[in-house]
Design the sequence.
């Protein structure tokens, strides 16, 4: 249930900030889920995507925050 907006412009601004914070956390959580789902997906590839607003280092921080397993950088995949 959505709460009633606070009165005046200051209240509207606070409501907008609250919504931005919720949206940002949801985006970070969704990105962490993607990284968990594909352990071979490198942070650099995600950071290079046009729609991702974060740097590679920020993505590593998000990964640590949400328990994403570390990536194996520069390691050749074993062949079956």
Sequence:
């Amino acid at each position: 249930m959505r709460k009633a907006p606070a009165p005046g412009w200051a209240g509207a601004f606070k409501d907008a900030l609250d919504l931005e914070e919720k949206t940002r956390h949801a985006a970070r959580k969704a990105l962490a889920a993607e990284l968990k789902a594909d352990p071979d997906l490198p942070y650099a590839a995600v950071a290079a995507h046009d729609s991702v607003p974060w740097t590679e280092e920020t993505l590593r921080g998000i990964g640590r925050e949400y328990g994403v397993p570390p990536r194996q950088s520069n390691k050749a995949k074993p062949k079956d």
